[in-house]
Specification:
Rossmann fold; seven-stranded mixed β-sheet; about 20% strand; binds glycine; binds nicotinamide-adenine-dinucleotide; 11 strands; about 375 residues; two-stranded antiparallel ribbon; Dehydroquinate synthase-like, alpha domain; single chain; globular; alpha/beta; 2 domains; 14 helices
């Protein structure tokens, strides 16, 4: 078991990673002097697979548990669903010290976190992520929120969990396409700063590309530890995304445009981010920030790990560019790109021309 500390101005937000980490939960809640009521937010898919494991954690304690199952899917990441969570908390008379526990992927974590942030102006919140994406990214760092019909994650709050418990065995049941989705964020950590992780991914690319976590716990534990450590370091330094945290948006600007242009159906978030990273690498090369050899090395890892590096012709360049316009990362009307200057080093550029973006997206079709 490994513990990583994410430190904000207010307090420590530990991330415990390993097997059987849920056994720590009663002790953590006791130390935090929380109330006796716990609302668990999850969905049917996760609950059927892993609900019993979570319930067993509380078998010998006196907590009163309320299970709130919400429909599965990004399309339910809405204010309406948050309202149903709040309704239950009100109906069950949850008080300031009672706990909201997110048990699921990023969709559950973002929504439960937001409900915890706004109910009684904030109640204790615990993250138990069950997807790779949530374990290495979404459940760490305190970004919570919901989508709006006009765009993704437009409504939300920064709200840190009292702890995040990363249980590796939950990933044994994760479909391969979801593993690939989380893997894109892992590659991102490698490119933006963690050259050790990048080299590890290169060395073990064949095993990793099988997307079989169950038979390779040790390998994935390294990957997850490294990723959580990177995210915790970045968020500890810049919780509100005033600077360094922006680096986490590498690949996400064009990736966001691709997701939007393909109506969030053709590509998973991770696949879109991988395509976005490829295009960003090209932009960096065009802008003479990055040499050809480095571009090739990074693109080649994406290919080896099984990411699509060609954009479907049905997703037009203009639609991708249009999709980028609703991006939260726009400042003063300018798109901001995180571009590598070498493996492990990135810069923020806000004067990339639309012509260059167009060429980079066009080339994804080639
Ligand atoms: P998700 O939460 O939709 O989960 C993907 C699918 O996997 C779902 O069908 C879910 O039911 C299923 N699932 C979850 N755990 C499982 C398990 N152990 N075994 C089998 N199936 C399982 O998707 P996600 O990729 O985890 O999260 C995506 C969301 O995260 C998006 O809404 C995105 O905006 C958000 N996000 C937030 C942050 C942040 O910093 N807060 C960062 C990245 C992404
Ligand atoms: N997923 C990007 C961030 O947390 O800032």
């Amino acid at each position: 078991m490994k513990t990583i500390n994410l430190k904000t101005k207010q307090q420590n937000h530990p991330i415990h990673i390993g097997e059987n980490v849920l056994t720590m939960l009663p002790g953590i809640l006791e130390t935090a002097k929380t109330g006796q009521k716990i609302a668990i937010v999850s969905n049917q898919t996760i609950w059927e697979l892993h609900g019993e494991t979570l319930l067993a954690t509380f078998a010998e304690s006196d907590y009163t548990l309320h299970i709130i199952l919400i429909p599965d899917g990004e399309s339910y990441k809405t204010m309406d669903t948050v309202q149903t969570i709040l309704d239950t908390l009100i109906e069950k008379h949850f008080e300031r010290k009672d706990v909201l526990l997110a048990f699921g992927g990023g969709v559950i974590g973002d929504m439960a976190g937001f409900a915890a942030a706004i109910y009684l102006r904030g109640i204790p919140f615990v993250q138990i992520p069950t997807t790779l994406l949530a374990q290495v990214d979404a459940a760490i760092g305190g970004k919570t929120g919901v989508n709006h019909p006009s765009g993704k994650n437009l409504i939300g709050a920064f709200y840190q969990p009292i702890c995040t418990l990363v249980e590796l065995s939950f990933l044994d049941t994760l479909p391969k396409k979801e593993v690939l989705c989380g893997l894109a964020e892992v590659v991102k950590y490698g490119i933006i700063g963690n050259t050790g992780l990048f080299k590890y991914l290169e060395t073990h690319s064949e095993k990793i590309a099988t997307l079989n976590i169950k038979d390779h716990h040790r390998l994935w534990e390294y990957i997850i530890r490294w990723s959580c450590g990177d995210k915790a370091t970045i968020v500890s330094a810049d919780e509100r995304e005033a600077g360094l945290r922006e680096n986490l948006n590498f690949g996400h600007t064009i990736g966001h445009g691709i997701e939007s242009a393909s109506h969030y159906t053709l590509y998973s978030h991770g696949e879109a981010v991988a395509l976005g990273m490829k295009a960003a690498l090209e932009l960096a090369e065009t802008g003479r920030l990055l040499d050809k050899k480095s571009t090739k090395r990074m693109t080649s890892l994406l290919k080896k790990l099984g990411f699509k590096t060609k954009l479907d012709s049905s997703v037009t360049t203009e639609a991708v560019i249009e999709g980028m316009r609703t991006d939260k990362k726009i400042r003063n009307g300018k798109l901001r790109f995180i571009l590598p200057t070498a493996l492990g080093t990135v810069v923020t550029i806000d004067d990339v021309t639309m012509d260059d973006v167009r060429i980079a997206v066009d080339n994804l079709h080639a």
